[in-house]
From TrEMBL:
PROSITE patterns: INTEGRASE (PS50994)
GO BP term, pick one: DNA integration
Protein name (database record): Integrase catalytic domain-containing protein
GO molecular-function terms, A-Z: nucleic acid binding
Domain Integrase catalytic: 580-751
Highest taxon of the lineage: Eukaryota
Cited InterPro entries: Integrase_cat-core, Integrase_H2C2, RNaseH-like_sf, RNaseH_sf
Pfam families xref list: Integrase_H2C2
Xref: CDD domains: RNase_HI_RT_DIRS1
Amino acid sequence: FLATCSPDLLDELKRELTSRNLEVVIKPEGDYLGIHFVHDTKRGIILECRRARRLQAALQVIEEVCKSRRFSRRKTFRLTGNLGFDPLMQHPVDRAVADAIRSATGSVGATWDEEVSLDAPEFDSLRELLAWSRELCGGGDPCRHCSTTDGAAMGDCLVLCVESDASLTGGGYIMKVSKSSSSDQGMVVLRKDCWRWSKSQQSWHSNRRELFGVLRALQAAADLVSSCKQVCNRKGIVFKVNLLCDNKPSVNWLERSSAGAVSRSKALERRAISRLLGSCAEECQVIRTMVPGSTVEVRHVQGSLNSEADYLSRVFERPCLRSDGTTTTLAASLLCGKGDPSPSTLTEVVKDGSTGVADNFSYITRRDLDAHEAVMVADSVRALRCSSSKDDGTNEDSRASRLSIAERVAADSWDYGLLRWRIEIIQKVLRTWRASCSKKRRVDPIVSDGYSPEGGLIHSAQSLLLPPRRKALLRPGSAVCVEDGLLYLELGRSSGHPFRQFYVPREAVYLRQLLLRDAHRRSGHGGREATISFMDAFYLPGGCREARSVIFKCLPCRLNKATRGRLSGPQLRKNEEELLLNFPPYWSVDIDVLYFGEGHKVLVAVCRATGHCSMTRLSSEDGPGLLQALRRIQLMRGGLKWIYSDQAPYFSSPKFRVALSVELGSELRLLASEAPWEAGRSNRIHGLGLTVLRPLLRSNRGRLPEDANEFDLMLEFLMYTLNSRPLGRCYEDPFGHDYPLTPDLLVFGYERRVGPLKLAQGKHPCLPLRDAVNFRKQYLREYWRKLRVKVLDAISSKASNVGAKRWIPTLGEPVLVIRQKARKSDLGSALAHIDALLEGKRALVVFPSGRKQVESFGNICPFINIQSSLNE
């Protein structure tokens, strides 16, 4: 056996070993798991990774693969085993690169020794990873890590500082420990880690990624505390864990102690965030219980103070050159599967007489460029391929169809800023190529000497003008002038000085569209005049007409200005007359959930024929809770053959529909959204119920009763009040009594007498069966028909002209769905497509997210398919 300890404890260790008759060699240094450690009186424990031999073995594999341009799984796993071995957890980048190489080559080849070509397009990321591994294996000083000079004494408090961060490509954390405070002085790095996101994780919301990084950091801290449990409990040592994060929402969520902290939030992926917060709470509980007295504190720090964790989260933003000449980030290249389209060849050959210049654009993507700039540079150079064809200008048709570099770059650019940036790069590249050629070939006017990026852009666009057209523009008396080969529109100022605008010809179609789109966006999606006013540096002949076309094709403008055209009126047929005379009450009902506040929710069922309502308490707002409440209503009232509901998730789920059919024998029918004419009398029941409820709760300051029996009694009284409300004029029965028509009379044929005042009237003769039929006929004759006529008149007043052509949507047609604005800045409509046509002038629409919803024809308006015009 071999034992080691610090020099100050050497005598005590010898004495203890001698007392136990143990012969153990004591040395001040030793090896464990490939790590060499030495006890130093001044510097504490010095740990040496001794990675030189492993890195040298990994470098030999890299050189062998790069030289032969072939590799196998066995070679890459040998490389990653040597590169990623890090017991001290001090080299996170090496471990992350090793994991990425294993991920890229884990399924390569049928066997472990089958070799595959490294030059295949799907191994773009592997080539960059090998180059990165060569840099990491390049050597340097021996790797040494020092601990604190003195250990933890009895009753000490160890400060554990954990910093975490997450970016779009990955996440990382760093863990430090100190005995005094969380300042950087005296802090010892215990662990570093970084990782990259998978395809599904990269689509997460930023708050969810940040919380996942916090959870990984807390798990590492909990593992450390658990490993020190026995020593800390014996010596009375406690931990003070300071968790630092630069994401304010995550910090706010972690600081809240209530379980419903996220339920009040409108953040995306709320359920996933709740689960992550629950896991974080469990890890904090582990830290507090393993070592009693330990605390966990969450702090928000500025991003500039979280630089170490931020660097670890962005290690995979390294540029990666693809086979098609474009440059992307290494994280994006690793996420490209084998099923993705393979890139084209990398080499671009430019021939000029006897000189052949083969350039692979590698000098453009230098290591000092960040990933975003590298992508833009490579994309700009790639655009030069489109203009490599030689054109002598003798063929007028080919000259008219020729596109300049300015046009080709404008066709692939989003805004003017990106276009100008690419033009500046192309100018430098073309001038460099022209200087290296032995023969000066004709190049695009964009590289003419002395031109700024704007001047080169306009010169290239004006080169599309035919000589007769250019001559006509420069006729005497014209407002167009020429200077340094560029055409300007010369205007005057109030001060008397000239004002010039670049002349953009009609032939530069893509450039004009880009300028108009950019101006329209910068004007805040204003009108034609506002769009034109934001192009004060350019003159576009016929620009007003093209501006109208751009505004017409603008999707946000169409969504914001969509209105109900009433091109196809709604259908009002509900079969109320047939339901009243031929079916029992509650055969067809509308259901909805009414929220009273304080966690009390009730299910409201309203008979579509009589307007009679029933309420029952909800145990939970989900499928099983709703099914239990509907079963209770069916036992009380019967019926419930046809159930109409809105498109809430718990109503529209297939499981709920099947459960209704199996357990109740009911058929669920979904109502179109934003179509109140399709519902029965349930639209006003909620408002009436709350209006009646407020005076009842006034004595209790608006608070609902906590006792379940009192709450049920309140619901019964509320139902009695709503079902006794008058629906129309009075009805005189054969005995000479006058009655206002109420839902109770339509259902039961008699009036319920409740309270001493009602019972004081004494006995009242009634024949419920006969009276119910008479009440219903009177209601249909005197009230219902007139109400339908008024509703039709109101709808017809808002509809289009009678002579206008009615619009009926077709399958697959894009439409705008009018929706209620959730907030003031929200759009008033959403884009969707017709998925199916339903009866009753309704359609099933599908949104870009894949969600399907039933809509009435009156709630959708046509959206002209502008895809063909956009491609012109």
